[in-house]
Backbone:
């Protein structure tokens, strides 16, 4: 047993072969799925979809899961394990050739890309609704559709208006103001902050990842301000308890806090803000019929009706043209719809992100924990 | 006389401090569960039972609680014989390599839970047993086993070797001596240990997180997962229900055997 | 008439015991008596063996580096992860923080646990004893994470503690998100464990022994130092080891009360396993932590004698 390599069952060669095979089969299987719709495979009693809890899962349930159950009669069970924490479970299941613990993973595109590179994702190129989506749905730098991106989001600069009597902050440099010492917050791994920090530190986005010294210099300055580091719920708690005045966080969290009666607003500062996507994917190793219905689920999720309801709940821009933004987000910089809205948003390919993320993270930690 | 008072004052002050530290978060959670608002706050933002209603209506929570009870039961059933035997062996006999053995038996505490969780997930996955509850109970047993062993060893202090000798010299065969003399003598340790094992298994989340799936999720894992997105007062309400169950259990135990059994052998 | 023992003279339970006895003799004859302790230890050794085997897998993983082009571990073995762990100052900083924290928490917990256990064992009032016991057990039931959030609410900038300080014209102070907040949270978490480990050791010391020392003219401090502490040594060692090892490997409290800037080594391990997906590096840190923890445990046993946790009077 000990000589079974840990997490290592699939060699790189086998992965490459698999990927090539998937690519060449792409065209044929699109046809395959369509014929398969005519004679539907056996329905499982339920499928399991990993989701984030709270308002996230509520939105998914209203927009996708409930309509799916209504249309197919298949119940949807939500697994609320964090995306980070389900990853080793899925990877181990695929490596050990077990049936994975979930049917569909709702994941950040970065995390999902790691799984795609590792070869644990099913190809989704044959989903009929992919014919109607925008470019945002296609993962950048990967072959085919190991993931289908379902919406975008922005790491905004959220702030407590009370702390800014002279108007909202315009630059990430507001974090360096001595009066906010100990009152700013970033994500634990600095996610969402590296790229604007590169700009704020006087560097260029084109230098990512080759030269990110400006970002590290800026983050070192922020460290002097003794920032709090946390996860989504921490931000809400901190804003609510008056612990922080400024945070780099996903707009959805800020909006959620606002809905709960906490006085929070947000901006996209002049240096720009990181734009990224989340997506859905299916782990390898499911029985044939369950794979079919899991695909149907994702196909539904990128249908216009589902997108409208689901993303109204999240307050995020989807991947289908012609969605109506929620009333409170019309014209909001965190809800980009037109090309010019994207000008202020920073987008770096998932591939560069996953290849360098561990280093960036290590560097960020070294600065913060030092 | 003055010294006796000084002694009581010092002890009293330190105990009061401990009591405050131990109870404060429990009281906060208790209070926060009755809030009428949408976020955990203390003092609560108006009074209502709406979060209890929400918890009572959630069948998934009830099922998760039921599964946690099973996990705790499995853990305790395995831990009691294993830990009692090992504890007595360590207490009564001089074992060779006992230093190395102690270090080995403390592995459950020296391996960080995340490491244990990942390791057991691979092991159980390889064996193809993930998806049932017993591996979760077994895991909870392994990672807390030193508590059971030590509870027994510690209470073996009250075990009088002469008593066993007396039993033996009266002609009692070894197994009878063991079951009728030795085990009852360490009963307080066994009870403390098994209660601790039960409670810890009931609350285990970090290792279980890696061993359960959506169909076998236990209550602490469910709570942990919910907390990761937003902290709503229903979590406080669940905790209070948990505390109430615990209080009832402790009360029942007191009625049945008397709480003094934790501290004194008969 | 054959001699038949009457039912009442030889009850069923005896017969069951006799059968068991015979069975035991058959399986384990008396001449194996020297092996009895090992037989009794065998189930525990096997059970912990599950972790030992996983540790081998983790050790194997620690010898493989992550390839970020495929997110697979390397096929060949290398010490690169260890080299990285030793060359990165942040690993050392976090490691020392955990170690120092574990030692401080152990000391503080024992200082608080002793009077608590002592009062619980010695109080003549049954009601008071029960209160102390219940206060000990209840916090277990709200779990580590919810408990830590309780502290966030109490000790926050606008929390109850600061409001009380405010009445006295002080503050508000930032009580949370620093090293001391983490240590405080850990002490609170560990206190019940320590008391439960200490209490049996204290209750085994007859009250008369203390009284005797007092009547011989020793003041209370001296009685403690020369009578109670030495007699309760196994309890202290046991409690100390529990607190030390569990603190050293704790994850939730530094994560929540430290505000992200006070990571312990288990948080670094979490990050490697779950955030950067670098199983090899996470495994490396795990192996190093187990080595440090086990060395500490071995050291304590070496200092305080083998079988400290077993019985007095049975020593060499």
Residues:
């Amino acid at each position: 047993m000990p000589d079974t390599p840990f997490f290592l069952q699939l060699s790189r060669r086998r992965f490459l072969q698999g990927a090539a095979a998937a690519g060449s089969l792409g065209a044929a299987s699109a046809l395959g799925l369509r014929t398969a719709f005519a004679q539907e495979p056996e329905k499982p009693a339920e499928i399991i979809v990993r989701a984030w809890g709270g308002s996230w899962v509520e939105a998914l349930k209203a927009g996708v899961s409930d309509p799916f159950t209504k249309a197919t009669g298949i119940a949807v069970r939500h697994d609320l394990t964090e995306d980070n924490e389900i990853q080793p479970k899925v990877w181990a299941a695929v490596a050990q050739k077990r049936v994975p613990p979930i049917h569909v993973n709702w994941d950040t595109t970065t995390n999902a890309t790691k799984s795609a590179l590792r070869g644990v994702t099913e190809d989704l190129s044959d989903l009929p609704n992919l014919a109607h989506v925008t470019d945002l749905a296609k993962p950048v730098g990967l072959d085919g559709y190991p993931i289908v991106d379902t919406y975008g989001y922005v790491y905004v600069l959220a702030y407590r208006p009370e702390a800014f009597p002279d108007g909202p902050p315009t630059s990430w440099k507001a974090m360096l103001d001595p009066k906010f010492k100990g009152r700013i917050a970033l994500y634990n791994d600095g996610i969402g902050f590296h790229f604007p920090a590169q700009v704020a530190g006087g560097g260029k986005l084109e230098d990512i990842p080759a030269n990110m010294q400006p970002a590290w210099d800026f983050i070192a300055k922020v460290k002097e301000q003794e920032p709090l580091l946390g996860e989504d719920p921490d931000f809400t708690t901190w804003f609510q308890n008056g612990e922080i005045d400024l945070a780099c966080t996903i707009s959805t969290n800020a909006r959620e806090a606002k809905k709960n009666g906490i006085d929070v607003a947000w901006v996209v500062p002049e240096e720009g803000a990181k734009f990224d996507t989340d997506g859905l994917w299916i782990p390898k190793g499911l029985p044939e019929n369950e794979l079919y219905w899991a695909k149907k689920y994702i196909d539904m999720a990128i249908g216009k009706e589902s997108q409208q309801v689901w993303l109204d709940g999240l307050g995020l821009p989807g991947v289908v043209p012609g969605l109506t933004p929620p009333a409170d987000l019309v014209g909001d910089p965190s809800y980009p719809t037109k090309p010019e809205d994207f000008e202020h948003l920073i987008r770096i390919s998932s591939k560069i992100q996953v290849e360098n993320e561990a280093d960036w993270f290590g560097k960020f930690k070294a600065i913060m924990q030092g | 006389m003055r010294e006796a008072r000084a002694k009581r004052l010092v002890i009293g002050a330190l105990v009061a401090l401990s009591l405050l530290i131990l109870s404060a978060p429990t009281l906060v959670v208790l209070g926060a569960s009755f809030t009428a608002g949408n976020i955990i706050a203390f003092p609560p933002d108006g009074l209502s039972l709406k979060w209890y209603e929400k918890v009572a209506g959630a069948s998934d929570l009830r099922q998760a609680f039921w599964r946690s009870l099973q996990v705790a039961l499995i853990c305790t059933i395995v831990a009691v014989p294993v830990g009692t035997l090992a504890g007595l062996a360590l207490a009564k006999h001089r074992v060779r390599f006992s230093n190395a053995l102690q270090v080995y038996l403390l592995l459950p505490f020296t391996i960080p839970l995340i490491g244990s969780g990942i390791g057991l997930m691979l092991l159980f996955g390889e064996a193809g047993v993930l998806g049932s509850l017993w591996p979760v109970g077994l895991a909870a047993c392994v990672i807390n086993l030193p508590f059971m062993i030590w509870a027994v060893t510690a209470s073996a202090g009250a075990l009088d070797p002469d008593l066993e000798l007396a039993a033996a010299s009266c002609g009692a065969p070894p197994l009878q001596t063991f079951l009728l003399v030795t085990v009852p003598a360490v009963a307080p340790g066994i009870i403390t240990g098994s209660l601790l094992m039960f409670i810890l298994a009931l609350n285990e989340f970090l290792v279980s997180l890696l061993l359960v799936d959506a169909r076998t999720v236990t209550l602490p894992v469910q709570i942990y997962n919910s907390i990761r997105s937003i902290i709503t007062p229903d979590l406080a309400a669940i905790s209070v229900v948990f505390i109430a169950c615990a209080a009832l259990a402790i009360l029942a135990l007191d009625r049945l055997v008397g709480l003094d059994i934790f501290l004194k052998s008969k | 008439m054959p001699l038949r023992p009457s039912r009442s003279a030889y009850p069923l339970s005896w017969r069951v015991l006799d059968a068991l006895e015979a069975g035991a003799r058959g399986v384990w004859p008396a001449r194996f008596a020297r092996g009895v302790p090992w037989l009794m230890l065998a189930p525990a050794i096997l059970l912990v063996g599950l972790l030992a085997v996983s540790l081998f897998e983790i050790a194997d993983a620690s010898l493989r580096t992550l390839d970020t082009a495929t997110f697979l571990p390397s096929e060949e073995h290398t010490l690169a992860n260890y080299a990285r762990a030793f060359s990165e100052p942040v690993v050392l900083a976090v490691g020392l923080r955990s170690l120092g924290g574990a030692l401080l928490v152990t000391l503080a917990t024992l200082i608080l646990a002793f009077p608590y256990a002592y009062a619980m064992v010695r109080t003549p009032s049954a009601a008071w004893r029960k209160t102390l016991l219940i206060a000990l057990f209840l916090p277990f039931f709200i779990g580590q994470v919810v408990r830590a959030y309780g502290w966030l609410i109490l000790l926050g900038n606008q929390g109850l503690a600061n409001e009380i300080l405010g009445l006295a014209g002080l503050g508000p102070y930032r009580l949370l998100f620093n090293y001391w907040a983490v240590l405080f949270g850990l002490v609170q978490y560990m206190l019940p464990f320590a008391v439960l480990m200490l209490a049996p050791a204290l209750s085994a010391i007859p009250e008369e022994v203390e009284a005797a020392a007092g009547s011989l003219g020793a003041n209370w401090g001296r009685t403690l130092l020369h009578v109670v502490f030495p007699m309760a040594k196994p309890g202290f060692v046991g409690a100390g080891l529990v607190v030390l090892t569990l603190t050293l490997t704790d994850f939730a409290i530094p994560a929540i009360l430290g505000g992200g800037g006070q990571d312990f080594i288990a948080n670094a391990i979490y990050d490697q396993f779950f955030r950067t997906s670098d199983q090899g590096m996470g495994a490396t840190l795990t192996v190093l932590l187990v080595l440090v923890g086990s060395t500490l445990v071995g050291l304590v046993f070496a200092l305080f004698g083998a079988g400290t946790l077993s019985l007095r009077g049975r020593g060499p």
Notes: Chain A touches chain B at residues 1, 4, 6-7, 48, 52-57, 77-82, 85, 88-89, 92-93, 96, 98, 101-102, 231-233, 236-237, 240, 256, 260-262 (CB under 8 Å).
